[in-house]
Amino acid sequence: MGVSISPPFTLLCLGFISTVWTLNPDDPNVCSHWESYAVTVQESYAHPFDQIYYTRCTDILNWFKCTKHR
């Protein structure tokens, strides 16, 4: 059992393939255009940190001031 393909579809495929093969970037009539641009992106993120604070304590050597971290 064979698969039948319609002639218009076959012509369309052949036309597309021949168009792709005929475009060569090295040809004299083919132009290429390069663009470069800068984009500014704003990023935000959270990161852990160590907060040092002082509290009263019974340590006479540190003048009754102890260091704590959060």
From TrEMBL:
Residues 1-22 form the signal peptide. It holds the Pfam family EMI. Keywords: Disulfide bond, Signal. Residues 27-70 form the EMI domain. This is Multiple epidermal growth factor-like domains protein 11.
